[in-house]
């Protein structure tokens, strides 16, 4: 049976009668127009359907159609004739055509074409009759058409004027054939549909099936697959509705064939009419038709999954009917062989996959038959016991001996592997499974080297796929095979040579992973450790299925400068203690910074699950677990954590009075205009060596560094080799910032141990100067006064002024300074223009003032924020409870660095009413609670901190006594403001004196003595510093009688004159003025009578 025979039922047949043996000469070009392409058919509902291709079988009319129903496939009958003369036509050709029409049933040419093929006369015109009229008035073709008006006559040519004429001629011939085919198709379709309507409601199912099958064959003939599939479904539905359940099973067809033995086409209608239709025949009929539709429909766009399903469904149906038949396995193989005949030669990858699946079914069916009738066996291949003993002699040649059986089994399996390897889909695992079956065969045949080669590439699949039951058996066979290869020391894996011991170690551990037998686990674990001791190789394995690991999400203080974290480690059924060299946990911060917790020389006990790891190289921040590694000898067991495997672990500084603690803060005492960091170390006497690197942090990777440690702005890192005492590190602003952050990398060793310690911590530095200072100088005859105006520099950050003090110039004892300011209660200063604080310092000297001398104003202060933070901590949180403070003390750095910066106070409420209260809705208490929960803080401490925050949210009333008492605990800041004496200017002292003791009256002159004294000597200069003009300024209160204006020529000048009052009452003394003649600017004057008044009557 050829691969095309299955399709013979769905083909348009065209027969030809060639009485003169002339068709062979033009058959080749005739066949070139077949199959018919692009046929357009207008359906009954008016839509246009295009059929891409219609297969055509061209057969000789001498072939007898033995069954009448085959006429449904015969669409056209050709008769091929030619003639060379009119006499030849009259004597031979015309009678021949008439006789041909009568013999074929077409003598009545007007008869309906619904049941008969269309007769067509092909008139071959050779070179002798081309363009020649054999008859006096008409051509030969016209004569034929006239004699047979109801029969289509077409001309055949073998000689053409040009290639183009040949192409056009055969194109026209194709159109004629298409037209004829469509005419016959339309007539037959309409006829059968009309007849079907007449019998649909009758009880005669055979007649209904006859017309439905005719319609199905018509659709199949014209390759209208959608319509054919719909019609086939109708036939199936009608059969199930009417009689399928009543039909007998029938006989098992062994071997299976697509067509009948006599090549007849099976029809359900005929079998029904003869009352011998069986379930098997009906199911086979449906299968063959559906198979044909699938194979045609998927020629260009394969959907072979449906075809595979169809074949499996038919096998399932046959199994239900004949599973107890002895020849069922032979039938099953013959059926699969018939299907495979049509699939093997198709190139599509998807079809190769279906072919491979069918071959696998065939192989397993064959294997079942062989094992059922022989004593042969294969590892891993066991079929359920059946009551029936199947016959399998037909395939005896495939298992004559056990060797032949093994070879046949290997051949079948390798063929399937070859097909699957050509598939585009992911079938590698199926290939692995089949390869393992070949491996089992090699193992059974004691071909251990071949078994190892196959198992090595396959068994990992079962480990990854969690097929534990299969995987462990493969492993044991693999290990035994490898042990049997005594000469094998290395295996090539991924183009690398791997020692045999390493491969065995992997296999041993995999058995430990998946075995459910505790005793077996222990046995293979001991084999693993023994092999590792004998062959010390550094190996890394995943902890999966060997150890169950999880982390606590809190760290705790394990000792001075040592953090601890607890981990849970459970061995997966290993029934013995395990000596561990080290356990290492690695955590990672978001900036790819890592911290390691480790413990060495431990025993993983079967009775213990919680273990503590420690870190001496500490980094603070929020971390996630990256990996945990358990080292046993030369072997490492590693667990890689995914992002969602563990919660974040928060590491914050935990205080211990025995710890060495480095702090970086803004220097508490600074000169105005200078910036510096103070780096201090607690318990520095415990240090053996230390090293600190301070690095300025950038806000982002693209931003500039805000400050620098050098004036040129190039140095962003400061290295300090020893920090035995506090040190000051100056820095310089590069940008106008109010704060910045630094990272301190502190490495050190202690005098009492050899361990290396380090801490990496970030510090926020507030570099905004909160105090605003302005200064004014006042000259007097015997003293000099500095007047300072003090305020807060920003509205948002008030300051608390504790005291001010004026410091004299260095190494100078000549000055007497008065005016130090130390209020009983510290003053709160804001940036409000309506509030300020004045400090005036009076400076006298027994010697002369030196203009180059520099005094320093020392301001002792804190910000109001710092004072309130201190009050909240001491007065509200701790409240003098020493016992509770011991529990709180380890976490005071968390309180200071995490909690206090989040508190935004209502400063006005405090300054007016001494109430500590937070600005409404500025504190996220839930966020703080989440932070607390991620730290190992005792519940009693968390509760107290939470209650403290709740209290200050509502408001806490304090007294002046509380504030004064607790403020003493506050570490003050100091600002040193340098102030210089003003540069020297000519300075005069002027006094107006009168001897009059009686009453002064309006208009009565009063004698005055005016004394003008130069104070240059007081500032270290002799003589006058230029030319000066003295003048008494006129006013509407006084008249000057005498020398009103005069040059000053000596250091002391006295003049006498009269001044006449012009008004009654209290009058100020006349104003005086001294002008520098060179600069025309007024000079400084200490006027002793500037604000004196006299009573005039």
UniProtKB/TrEMBL annotation:
Residues 675-769 form the Trs130 second Ig-like domain. GO terms for biological process: early endosome to Golgi transport; intra-Golgi vesicle-mediated transport. Residues 11-197 form the TRAPPC10/Trs130 N-terminal domain. Residues 988-1079 form the TRAPPC10/Trs130 C-terminal domain. InterPro entries: Ig_TR130_2nd (IPR056915), NTS_TR130 (IPR056916), TRAPPC10/Trs130 (IPR045126), TRAPPC10/Trs130_C (IPR022233), TRAPPC10/Trs130_N (IPR056913). It is found in: Golgi apparatus. It comes from the Eukaryota. GO terms for cellular component: cytosol; TRAPPII protein complex. Its main location: Golgi. Residues 307-533 form the Trs130 NTS domain. Pfam families: Ig_TR130_2nd (PF24966), NTS_TR130 (PF24967), TRAPPC10 (PF12584), TRAPPC10_1st (PF23036). Keywords: Golgi apparatus, Transport. PANTHER family: EPILEPSY HOLOPROSENCEPHALY CANDIDATE 1/TMEM1, TRAFFICKING PROTEIN PARTICLE COMPLEX SUBUNIT 10. This is Trafficking protein particle complex subunit 11 domain-containing protein. It comes from Torulaspora globosa.
